[in-house]
Amino acid sequence: MSDIHGNLAALESVLADIQDQGIDEIYCLGDVVGYGPNPCECIDKVREHCTVCLLGHHDHAVLFGPEGFGVGAEQSVYWTREILESSDSEDRIHFLCELPRIITEPRRTFVHASPRNPLHEYVFPYDIQNLPKMEKIFARCEKDCFYGHTHIPGIITEDLRFLAPEDVNSEYQLNGQKHLINVGSVGQPRDGNPDACYVILDGVCVRFRRVAYDIEATARQVYDIPQLINFTGDRLFEGT
Fold first, then answer.
1. Closest by alpha carbon to 111, among 62, 182, 170, 165?
2. How far apart are CA 182 and CA 228, in angstroms?
């Protein structure tokens, strides 16, 4: 799972669904915080439940300052840092500081953004038309790479096809090709579906899961925090 973005209601619903699925290990691909109203609680949940957690660019920005962020994202970063610094969260900050940027296992790579630039490079569905970019990214993968960052779930194959979850009935069998698997976003989906998204890897089978949660509760919390722009809450209802 990836891109929780301080959305505790979404994270708790996903964790409950994960428990129902009998999952052995949970990998979080970063951006635990940023945008959302519950950074401390989300960090605590990830620390408690996740086997692995990677550093996302919002997590990095909270530690070292935002660069190239829009106004709303930048405001949320400074507010999140203020909350962490004022809530006896030294251990939470230390947790973020220790997160790796990439994890490589036999035939699998896990990053937040891309294997070429684990923190910042966006790999969008339309990038299948950019052959030089995709060749360089696939060259950094031994086999399959799992990532987030764009909040748009789907699979890019080595022969440069993009397969959205609905294209494969939410289930795909990995084969001899290399694949880039975007696991979507738990806390801020942007593919037109407001339900939280994560992926189950079972052997060579990838299954996309969508989980409904109390969007209104998260949006109300956002609206009640002056430092967070209302659009951050509004977009949750549309998944955009």
1. 182
2. 27
Match 């339309």 to its residue by tokens.
126
Give the separation between CA 163 and CA 156, rounded to whole angstroms: 6
Which residues have C-beta within 8 Å of that of residue 127, sequence separation ≥ 6? 133, 134, 156
Global pTM reads 0.96
pLDDT digit string, tens, across residues 173-194: 999 899 999 999 999 999 999 9
| pLDDT tens-digit map of 99-158 | 999 999 999 999 999 999 999 999 999 999 999 999 999 999 999 999 999 999 999 999
User: Distance between alpha carbon 98 and the CA centroid of its chain, in Å?
Assistant: 18
Report the DSSP pairing between strands 171-173 and 205-211.
antiparallel
What is the distance between the alpha carbons of residues 171 and 165, in angstroms, rounded to a whole number? 7
Residue 87 pLDDT: 80
> Where do the structural domains in the chain lie, given as residue ranges?
8-238
* Assigned CATH for 8-238: 3.60.21.10
Q: Residue 182 phi/psi, 5° resolution?
A: -85, 120
